[in-house]
Specification:
elongated, about 110 residues, mainly beta
Amino acid sequence: DDLGIGFEIETGVDCSAAGLVKTLEVIKPDGTAVSWSATLKTGDNSVLEYTSQSGDLNQSGEYKLQAKIASGQVGMSGYSGYSGYSGTPEILAGDTAYFRVRELGD
């Protein structure tokens, strides 16, 4: 279980608006879905950061990670260049990332 591993995800959108909830949506190797609370990278409003905590990387195998930006408002029409977007007040941003955690000695 690795602690302190840093992740930076380029979302391609401005995530600095007040009230936005920024998370990294993760699917662990066994298929378990979890959310990690992310923060904005200082000086870059389109990059989300996260540092791993106990239990985050507790399985060996491939992880899938996607940034999610959510608002408490219904509809985000025109938000950050997503013209015509309305309905669910959240978007998945940036590319899906994959990474592998190996057992010690693998």
